[in-house]
Specification:
Mean pLDDT: 97
Number of domains: 1
Number of strands: 14
Distance between the termini: 46 Å
CATH topology: Rossmann fold
Radius of gyration: 20 Å
Structural class: alpha/beta
Low-confidence stretches: none
Largest sheet: 7 strands, parallel
């Protein structure tokens, strides 16, 4: 297949580009380096530097003998985006190309405006690029479990049957996001559902939980092929943050009571999920939604896991509750369904102690690059 990877310089985008290229697909990696720019502006650089996309593609070809084409440009520019789709006419579009940080979106007016305009604008432009040049292509869009919030009922897989006054209909599951970033993802889903109904697009929306990990099959040969690894409060996911804190001797920062429960998955499973979705396309006129996680637990339980893994490698890991900078429930009901991807054949990689130990050992080799000033929360939801 000819596959466009939008946001290919990101934590998920680059491993996805390598994954599909290694299988022999024609891959076009697209980015404008927005995430790199924001990281510099907010002193949120990753633990170790990663090459730009052109250099990464050259390294990948040298190691694996497969090519990845690179397109550098702004998908928020409607004309540039339209030209991209006219040039490549993809079979599959994997859409990661958004400002991906909840804390950044809550940092202030300028950051909120950029997040809103960029995220919705890019999705709108991608939709029209497909409509104009490849209307039968399949869009695999990265959503987030954060769209749902923490409702006091079970979270279904994207859709819910509603009975009201003797009548019934299936609707998108009610969503109540906890940040502006997550709210833009809610609006993405609504926008996609509108154009699916109107023009019969094929869309799979992957509601993904927090991702952790560094290992992928394609990056084993050369550390320069690993994804960018953020451990700061802006871009670092909670698992990656906790592991770096354990090594730096900074107590694991549990926000508030620590009862916040989420669904997590290994980076390898992200690749497998996107692969399964891409190779089993949604029907024409279908918005298919999968909840993309493999296990769920609270922040307190996560801290306990990191503590145990740290002990195995000789670390004295402390845990400390700090005032919650976010506006969220800290103790709540959470039961999310996640069966669709398992039915397609997903074989999960669970967060075992061995997995966490291997990550700790990798991070230790970069210990001297840890900047403790980037770890504690610098953004409060109430300003």
């Amino acid at each position: 297949m000819r596959i466009l990877i939008l946001g290919a310089d990101g934590y998920l985008g680059w491993p996805t580009a390598m994954h599909f290229a290694a299988q022999g697909h024609e891959v076009i990696a697209v980015d404008n380096y927005l995430r790199r720019l924001i990281a510099q502006q907010t002193s949120s650089e990753p633990l170790f530097e990663t090459p730009n996309l052109d250099d990464r593609a050259k390294l990948f070809k040298a190691e694996h003998g497969k090519s990845i084409d690179v397109e550098i440009g702004d998908l928020a520019d409607l004309r540039w985006c339209d030209n991209l789709f006219a040039k490549h006419k993809p079979d599959v579009v994997v859409h990661y190309a958004e400002q991906p940080s909840a804390p950044y979106s809550m940092r202030g007016l300028d950051e909120a405006e950029m997040t809103m305009k960029n995220n919705l604008g890019v999705t709108f432009n991608v939709i029209w690029g497909m409509l104009n040049h490849c209307p039968d292509a399949h869009l695999v869009k990265l959503g987030t479990m954060g769209e749902y919030g923490t409702p006091n009922i079970d979270i279904e897989e994207g859709w819910i049957d509603v009975e009201h006054k003797g009548r019934s209909q299936k609707f998108l599951y009610p969503r109540q996001a906890g940040s502006l970033y997550h709210t833009t993802k809610v609006l993405d889903t609504d926008l996609l559902w509108f154009y699916v109904r109107l023009y019969g697009l094929r869309v799979t929306d992957l509601m993904q939980g927090p991702v952790y990990g560094l290992e992928t099959a394609e990056a084993e040969a050369n550390e320069c092929l690993m994804p960018n690894f953020h451990y700061d409060d802006i871009f670092g996911t909670v698992v990656n943050r906790f592991l770096v804190q354990a090594i730096a001797g900074v107590p694991l920062t549990v926000y508030g009571k620590g009862g916040q429960t989420r669904g997590y998955l290994n980076l390898k499973d992200t690749l497998n999920c996107v692969d399964l979705a891409s190779n089993n396309a949604a029907d024409k006129g279908e918005l298919r939604i999968f909840n993309q996680f493999t296990e769920q637990f609270s922040v307190n339980e996560l801290a306990d896991r990191v503590h145990a893994a740290g002990k195995r490698v000789g670390l004295d890991v402390k845990v400390k509750s700090i005032p919650n900078p976010r506006k969220e429930l800290e103790d709540h009901y959470y039961n999310a369904k996640s069966t669709g991807l398992l039915e397609l054949g997903l074989k999960p990689n669970f967060m075992t102690e061995d997995v966490l130990v291997r990550m700790l050992e990798t991070i230790m080799s970069h210990k001297d690059r840890i900047d403790e000033s980037k770890i504690l929360p610098r953004v409060k939801w109430n300003g």
